[in-house]
Amino acid sequence: MHNMNNLNDLKDKVCVITGGGGVIGASLATGLAGVGIVTVILDINEEAAQKVATTVQEETGTKSFGMKANVLDKASLVAVLQQITDEAGQIDFLINGAGGNSPQATTQLEELTEDDLDNLEKSFFGLEMEGFQKVFDLNFMGTLLPTMVFAKQMVQRQKGVILNISSMNAYKPLTKIPAYSAAKASINNFTEWLAVHFAKTGVRVNAIAPGFFLTNQNRFLLLDEATGALTSRGKKIIASTPMGAFGEPADITGTALYLLSDMSHFITGICIPVDGGYSAYGGV
Ligand code: NAD
């Protein structure tokens, strides 16, 4: 019989969080450490990773390690796997948190109209392939590669949970950000694919789709740089979120704990929106 009514099974488990130096990763790390999960904060920004690990350990008293790794470089992931196993132990959980959008993969126009036919570079046609590829790869390959490197020992031990971080873009693409949208849609598809592939191994694969949270990777789209006021896009998002606010990073913790624990023992291949009702709202 699996533990179905508390989070006690999570104590002393080891969770790797990629992009753990970022806003959502850091918040997840604190929440997980609060129930006794040992966290390994991986980030391409080593200083950010170590800072988060130190704060998590100070705030919760649970061990946390900060390490440098690039989710797009398999050799860097293989190297850090050895360090993780030596310092923190065998990996029980992987949260693929590294991701985000970039201005280089963002069109200036939301829609192409007749008025813009002399200005096509502001539309889809002006997207730089390099920026597009960077964002697509960070969000998709940056989930695939760490999973390939870190899930092997889970499969061999016949237990473990992988959590991918999707987005509202996965359900309906947002204007201006086609690379991020396509990549996050591919995360949902890959979550289902891998869940089926691993289903008989005891390793579960699920995703969380955060709604709108104000963080570094989207601040330039949602707030006016000079005044700090909401951009028209920011206003649109609030109007499209029935609960009428941006999410707080800590709002994601409960869903993550549920999906990591045995309480969700029979759940694999799903994506849970944490979005204040955004994905349920038709706009009218
Ligand atoms: P963030 O920018 O604060 O954090 C992302 C972290 O990833 C950064 O610390 C960055 O250094 C790290 N990173 C970037 N490239 C890396 C690489 N190659 N290897 C390792 N680490 C790398 O962003 P966030 O908002 O905390 O985003 C976390 C996840 O949540 C992302 O997948 C993002 O797409 C997703 N998400 C965010 C929102 C939101 O509203 N903020 C909404 C939906 C989904």
Describe the structure.
The chain is built from nine helices and seven strands; from the N terminus they run E-H-E-H-E-H-E-H-H-E-H-E-H-H-H-E. A seven-stranded parallel β-sheet has the order 3-2-1-4-5-6-7, sandwiched between helices. The protein has a single domain, classed as Rossmann fold (3-Layer(aba) Sandwich), CATH 3.40.50.720. It has 284 residues and is α/β, with parallel strands linked by helices. The radius of gyration is 19 Å and the shape is globular. 39% of the residues lie in helices and 13% in strands. Helix 6 links the parallel strand 5 and strand 6 (203-210). The structure holds nicotinamide-adenine-dinucleotide. Nicotinamide-adenine-dinucleotide binds next to helix 1.
Number of strands: 7
Question: How do the strands line up in the largest sheet?
Answer: 3-2-1-4-5-6-7
Structural class: alpha/beta
Write the CATH architecture name.
Answer: 3-Layer(aba) Sandwich
- Give me the CATH superfamily: NAD(P)-binding Rossmann-like Domain
What proportion strand?
5-15%
In angstroms, what separates the terminal alpha carbons?
45 Å
Oligomer: single chain
- Tell me the overall shape: globular
Write down the CATH topology: Rossmann fold
Topology pattern, helix = H, strand = E = EHEHEHEHHEHEHHHE
Q: Biggest sheet, open or closed, and with what strands and sense?
A: 7 strands, parallel
Low-confidence stretches: none
Helical content stands at: 25-40%
